[in-house]
Amino acid sequence: MSVFEVLVVTAAVATGLAGGVLYAFSAFVMHGLRRLPPAAGAAAMIAINRAALRPPLMLLLLAAVVLPVAASVVGLVSGDSGAGWALAGAVVSVVGVLGVTGAGNVPLNERLDASPDPADEWARFVPRWLAHNHVRTAAGALASVLLVVGLA
Q1: Rounded to 5 degrees, what angle do the CA atoms 99, 102, 107 make?
Q2: Fewer C-beta neighbours within 10 Å, C or N terminus of the chain?
Q3: Please, how many CA atoms are within 13 Å of residue 104, restricted to the half-sphere of its CB?
Q4: Under 8 Å between Cβ of 140 and 20
Q5: What is the pLDDT of residues 49-85, one digit of tens each?
Q6: Half-sphere exposure of 35 toward its Cβ, with a 13 Å CA cutoff?
Q7: What is the per-residue pLDDT across 82-118, written as a single tens digit (0 to 9) for each?
Q8: CA angle in degrees (0–180, nearest 5) for 105-60-68
């Protein structure tokens, strides 16, 4: 396997895993939290957000952005025919996973954490946070598909 192919495979796995983790939140974690009383749901989400700032998730999200970018750069420099697909996967991951996280989910998390009344903030938080998370989920999945197509 070439360096490009190794990077594309690892990037596809990382973006797919990131999309899967984010999907779990959209599919059932947030559903479970919404079934709790607002104060309990907000408190649980605050605790989850604080726990998320640890290496397991941070390294995965970093890999889901850095690896596709590295793959696209190596592919473009080497003239690999799949470089365009890798670049598309990198753009989707950078914008849809990293960008939406930084511009959408993180500010909402910080607002919930800093709220004097998290239970009151919870009602506004959930639909906006989920909308952003759905985009991140789809971006992780799409980036993974684009990267795999680059191998074909």
Answers
A1: 140
A2: C
A3: 18
A4: yes
A5: 999 999 999 999 999 999 999 999 999 999 999 999 9
A6: 5
A7: 999 999 999 999 999 999 999 999 999 999 999 999 9
A8: 95
Interatomic CA distance for residues 19 and 115, integer angstroms: 29
* Cα-based torsion angle of the residue sequence 59, 74, 103, 145 in order, rounded to the nearest 10 degrees: -80
Q: Using alpha carbons, select from 143, 141, 109, 102 the residue that is nearest to residue 126.
A: 109
Q: What's the chain's length in residues?
A: 152
Say if CB 63 and CB 147 are below 8 A apart: no
What contacts 93, CB < 8 A, 6 or more positions away?
15, 18, 64, 65, 68, 69, 139, 140, 143
- Determine the distance from the C-alpha atom of residue 42 to the mean position of all C-alpha atoms in its chain, rounded to a whole number: 21
Q: Which amino acid is at 3?
A: V
Residue 120: CB atoms within 10 A of its CB come to 13
3-class DSSP state of 18: helix
C-alpha span between 103 and 106 (Å, rounded): 7
Cα 23 to Cα 15: distance, rounded to the nearest angstrom: 12
